[in-house]
Amino acid sequence: MRIKERSGRAAAAARIGRQRPRARHRPLEPEQLAAVAGRFGALGEPSRLRLLEVLREGEHSVGALMVATGFTQPNVSKHLRVLHQLGFVRRRKAGVSTYYRLADRDVLRLCDIMCRRLAAAAAAERALFGE
Length: 131
Description:
60% of the residues lie in helices and 11% in strands. By secondary structure, the protein is mainly alpha-helical.
């Protein structure tokens, strides 16, 4: 005998019952909190975010990053050094030039999440004030 398929809320409840329980989040140790805060702090600098936005397009030399951002060479180098030390970007040398690329796309996901949140907050504010 075949049991009739569940639909609606009963099916959803059955699926929820089969889901694996989420692992409990362990509180971060002070050293871990400091490491996370340091990385978020580095992303709190608009110039670094601008460099990451340009690197979203792919690998660039320091000179190309200067042209794309309008920043000076010392400024670009300083910010790239921080981003490299924290693991946000990778670099490679080719002759006298140094090229930078994103280490991975995770940092862009963080930026995209924040941009969506800002857009939603702005939309809610416009709706509230009828703009």
